[in-house]
């Protein structure tokens, strides 16, 4: 539909119809057994809401969605189609590693490819918009949703946010927008705007306290990268920002997002976030919450009646001009138009294609590659790769489990996963497997979708499982031990005070270590954990995150040496929970601690190290790499001149295996008008080298990479000296200096 047609449609709509476009309903409202008077109607939705709604979430299946859309449009006064939205985070049916694992891959091209797979699969099932990517910067692993982020670094998050958006939507055209009508594309929604990853004490939905300077320099860049990539929608966060809830925060939504960044897409609240402003005690009731949200520029109210029940009276009272509602409705209608829904309200929904494309071999191959590149080898005392599989025993509760995907993989089926046992069998392993303990948490918890993940203790059962595993371990030359967090120990509402794994699994590790010291630990996790004891009792530790559908095949590829591990940590793994938040790009202090300094009166712990157990950017390989000294193309950049410097190193594979290495460039502002991080990631490149092969890797340094929010609150670079570091982790000291004059 041409733009004039959209404007004409808006002019013809009644006020009630307009408000309906700003209402999102849960999918249960459109299920056949839904009754308005029953317990399902927990939000008190009306018959009018169901007729006039603008969008719906969490319904899937081409046939079902086409039926719902057809019936809905027949009843709607202007036959305006719904948008079908869903939480597709790291895959629809073919599940990829959790986003934190994808960050560990340091390969945004794989994330873009995975996003394309998810878009093709889900669009065939009728979904038209994803609530993804999550661009929240995360530095506290106690927060359950760290699994949904790509880590602790602003630059890394920015690169992956852009890759996800372009994978879902396609790259922008000359008009500055992606072609959403293209078959297999979906609209993306970057979340949670803004600063949600800084939830105080790592507790979900909690308060966020950030200075404007920290917000702008560290937390906003990834969201801005998604906006620059053309993301169609943005989701507000649950938290306060400067003590104002995000969903009513005009400074965030209008001044920064819309005016500074030029975002003209749709802004949607998170689930019930508008109504929760009453709980924040900044709104007396839902009517006042609706007033704050519409004034802040929030277009869609997710799953409350704040807008549907109150906007009309707010307009009648003269408190809200109807023009505010019109501009919100126009954005929603424009999104529907860009998706092509006025011409084809079903878009790509296709029952036959749904049968053939979901979990097809091509999609699985992409997931397998992404998983193998996400694994991070933290320790290896020469036991990996496995030259001989036959003397290895497979032990642990994840050995034959299909639940090796993330908590937000809500459309996944465990039967579709390749288990670790199956992957090893395909590689020729003929050994034996034992669970050793049940797959359970230490505390009662109901996860996403109501799945119970706590199993009551049964001494007879637990002893039998443990003894069976120990009997097997005694006879084996080495043990592949599969332990870690269940997927529903992470994700939304899964904040934890301790960074450990379930006690039964730790008991299994300790007992196995008593009878066989040759332990290869496969660690399943959705967050950094305290690995001191696990590492001490293992000859090798391979972090496999929550690897997804092809996890078993990918693990087999890496264990057997078909692929060398090439992942790097996207978040620092703490020495213990008492350190958190701990991250590499901290600020210097007036009494900054340097390892080995005996001075007591410096910023240090008396009982534990300052440094994490494993730092950001760290990860081992089956090969060895030698990185030359940093060579600069010059020693000076000129402020405002637009010139650049090249920082180069030569990387040589000195080992005996072909392998990949992630070369990382960090910059430090030596002296500045405000305190700056000790170093910041500003570039990386993942390269593959054969034994003896070498390659020159160069990074371009531009003035904008040196910019920050200065003492005058303006973002700019300042003249002075800088240090560039190039190596294979955030701890590299391989450096050179230059001047910005």
Write up what this structure looks like.
By secondary structure, the protein is α/β, with parallel strands linked by helices. It has three domains: about 5-355, TIM Barrel (Alpha-Beta Barrel); about 365-575, Rossmann fold; about 625-740, Immunoglobulin-like (Sandwich). About 30% of the residues lie in helices and about 15% in strands. It has an eight-stranded parallel sheet with strand order 9-6-5-4-3-2-1-10. β4, α7 and β5 (about 185-195) form a beta-alpha-beta unit. α1 crosses α13, α5 (about 100-105) packs across α15 and α6 (about 110-125) runs parallel beside α7. The chain is globular and about 75 Å long. The model has no long low-confidence stretch (mean pLDDT about 95).
CATH topology of the largest domain: TIM Barrel
Please give the radius of gyration in angstroms: 26 Å
Strand order of the largest sheet: 9-6-5-4-3-2-1-10
- CATH class (first level) name of the largest domain: Alpha Beta
Q: What composes the largest sheet?
A: 8 strands, parallel
Q: Roughly what fraction of the amino acids lie in strands?
A: 15-25%
What is the total number of structural domains? 3
Q: Examine the secondary-structure arrangement and name the CATH architecture of the largest domain.
A: Alpha-Beta Barrel
Count of strand segments: 27
Per CATH, the superfamily of the largest domain is Glycoside hydrolase, family 3, N-terminal domain
Structural class: alpha/beta
Oligomer description: single chain
Low-pLDDT residue intervals, each spanning 5 or more residues: none
Mean pLDDT figure: 96
Helices, by number, come to 20
